[in-house]
Amino acid sequence: MSSVASLIMAARQSGIPVLEARLLLEHASGLSRTRQAAWPEAELPPEQAERFHTLLQRRQAGEPVAYLIGLREFFSLDFEVSPAVLIPRPETELLVELALEHIPLDTPSRALDLGTGSGIIPVSLRKHRPMLDMRAVDISADALAVAARNAERHATPIQLMQSDWYGSLGREQFDLIVSNPPYIAHGDRHLAEGDLRFEPRGALTDEADGLAHIRRIIQGAPRHLAHGGWLLFEHGYDQAEPSRALLTAAGFAQVQSWDDLAGIARVTGGRRA
Q1: Given a cut of 70, is residue 183 above it in pLDDT?
Q2: How many Cα atoms are found within 13 Å in the side-chain-facing hemisphere of 267?
Q3: Relative to the CA of 152, which of 1, 109, 239, 244 has its CA 20 to 30 Å away?
């Protein structure tokens, strides 16, 4: 038998932060982080301690905690994640906040999420706008399966469709289009660092200059946006200016960028004139 305190100490000695260790231990044993802190002397069965040590070894090898425990919090909700989808990041909450500003609370409207991944954006939007008719597409069937489970988890009705951007949408139109597309340029060193090594490459990079998918999204948006509808998308730290230029060239009005909490221009958008 191993105590909570001894297992957490072993994690610290191996270089794993305490918070990560407690998350892994909670996943391995079912013992909440609150109970771990309150009863450090609690003894765990050998099989639970073994599961914890296995998770610890995988974490030491670099696997993201979110994939190890299968969950990540986003916009105050817990979402299922797997290696089929990106790990939700705080920066994307800005995109959700801006989208909510463009969705009426008490009037029906339609919105589209392009490249939905785990479904964090449409689920968050639908959770806060119950009258929203929400559609989400992704080219990956595995990602859509994760998104479907997250929609069910949070009781948020969403229409999911497999599509290469707008490819399967016919002539459907929406009041709002949002997207967090792959925007890391080919050869960017970050692709070989940290969590990105384990995330789906196709959801991270366009294997080009980082703007290839953004161009496609902007070019196709006028066909699928109602008059006066908004397009909002996340992009890289250095892509705000070219994103605004692309929107302006496509005839969008009120083109602008918004900063995240770190002061980095992270979301750009415009209105169909």
Answers
A1: yes
A2: 25
A3: 109
Going by pLDDT thresholds of 50, 70 and 90, the confidence category of residue 21 is very high
Contact 36, 19 (CB under 8 A): no
Contacts of residue 236, Cβ cutoff 8 Å, sequence gap at least 6: 183, 184, 185, 210
What are the helix (H) ranges across 64-140? 65-69, 92-101, 120-128
pTM over 0.90: yes
The pLDDT value given to residue 1: 67
Q: What is the pLDDT of residues 165-182, one digit of tens each?
A: 999 999 999 999 999 999
pLDDT digits (tens, 9 = 90+) for 202-259: 999 999 999 999 999 999 999 999 999 999 999 999 999 999 999 999 999 999 999 9
Q: Which residues pair with 136 in a beta bridge?
A: 113, 160
Judge whether 131 and 102 are in contact, CB under 8 Å: no
- Binding residues for S-adenosyl-L-methionine, by number, are 115-119, 138, 165, 180
- Rounded Cα–Cα distance for residues 92 and 80 (Å): 16
Annotated binding site for substrate: 180-183
Q: Where along the chain do its domains lie? A: 2-61, 85-272
Amino acid at 243: S
Q: Annotated binding site, which residues? A: 115-119, 138, 165, 180-183
Report the alpha-carbon distance of residue 92 to residue 75 in Å, rounded.
9
Q: Which CATH superfamily is domain 85-272 in?
A: Vaccinia Virus protein VP39 (3.40.50.150)
Contact 255, 264 (CB under 8 A): no
